[in-house]
Amino acid sequence: MNASGKNMPELDDTDRRILRLLQQDSTLSTQALAEKAGLSASPAWRRVRRMIESGMIRRQVALIDPAQAGLHAMAYVQVSLLDHTEQSLARFDRFVQTEDQIIECATITGTSDYHMKIIAPDPEGLEDFIMRRLLALGIVRGTVTNFVLRQTKYTTAMPL
């Protein structure tokens, strides 16, 4: 079972091929997907439907080029909280969920509590977000910020 309690489908080579194709281009029509996967349309559609219903395919989205959207600054920020009370953790989690500039956040092991990926129009926008939004919460003990100079690899594709 997956995290949502749904049964996970057994993946065969055809399922993996379909998933690789969809990760490259989720806008493929069922017919085009079927042809590239070596199937007819109905079996391809049924396989995709099964993987959606099981939660294997979470959602299909458009990937936006940050620079073309005016977002030229990115940073990885490690965050340490003042305490680990249920109230502080819940408050931080609510903050993360409501802030669009935070595009990834994970609870981590080590000296920090969270690792976030933040995006902004420029470096000043990142600084403003950290100083006026994140630190203003009053529950953050400290942050370590690493500005991204250049991305050498970016993918959302899972290695299947």
TrEMBL record:
Residue span, HTH asnC-type domain: 11-72
The record ties this protein, via CDD domains, to: HTH_ARSR
Q: Which UniProt keywords apply?
A: DNA-binding, Transcription, Transcription regulation
Top-level taxon of the source organism: Bacteria
Under the heading InterPro entries, the entry gives:
ArsR-like_HTH (IPR011991), AsnC-type_HTH_dom (IPR000485), Dimeric_a/b-barrel (IPR011008), Tscrpt_reg_AsnC-like (IPR019888), Tscrpt_reg_AsnC/Lrp_C (IPR019887), WH-like_DNA-bd_sf (IPR036388), WH_DNA-bd_sf (IPR036390)
Under the heading Pfam families, the entry gives: AsnC_trans_reg, HTH_24
Query: What's the protein called, per UniProt?
Result: Lrp/AsnC family transcriptional regulator
The organism named in the record is: Paracoccus maritimus
Lineage, opening ranks? Bacteria, Pseudomonadati, Pseudomonadota, Alphaproteobacteria, Rhodobacterales
